[in-house]
Amino acid sequence: MSILLDHIRLAYGSRTLLTDACATLAPGTLTALIGRNGTGKSTLLRAVAGLAPAAGGRIELCGRPLDQLTPRQRAETVAFVTTDKVRIANLPCEDVVALGRAPYTNWIGRMQEADRAVVERALALVGMEAFARKTMDRMSDGECQRVMIARALAQDTPVMLLDEPTAFLDLPNRYELALLLRRLAHDEGKCILFSTHDLDVALTLCDTVALIDTPQLHALPAAEMAASGHIERLFTGGGIVFDAATQTVRLTKN
Asked: Which residue of 56, 86, 184, 220 is surrounded by the most CB atoms within 10 Å?
């Protein structure tokens, strides 16, 4: 498994977010992490990235305990795209993406031909090769997000984490970005976990849905999650309709 959560406990100050949370996420799969605001989605992603310790339990990445990985090993295993809007002025996109090669360049950070090829391929995978010499201050939010995903791809890790990558995008661009993540997971064999508030994207485009219902974590295949009742209890108290034939979600009022 690419990600193993073994009886994880998460806390924020004195507040318990998760207790005894277990999940396994396989290579080549796209998983949506959903839950109400403030329930610990970002905290869980940061714990899996090794940026903040869990209060208890064990996290493994690709069969190795996270707490035993050196900083370089962690950088070669997991890439993290935050929810922040990133617009780096006066730095071409290919140079932003090249930052993902930091774990592999020599001690002075010099790029080799192999590194440049990885950067070019990463830009091509997200459809941004034509923007290589453009700067992010002249690009849309969706284009900037694709560049940051390309940077994570250039990091060449088996695990990718994204914190609400569609937060600043309109509906068509949210679907387009989710489709991109699905293609990267399936075609590149990566384990991709991203947080989102888009239930329709989570249930129709993802392989697995992980739902935080404090203090529990439920991780199920998308179709099973839609039929489980967890989502309707958490979000609408019984107001979700999932049409398996059309793979669409409709929310209704009680």
From this structure: 184
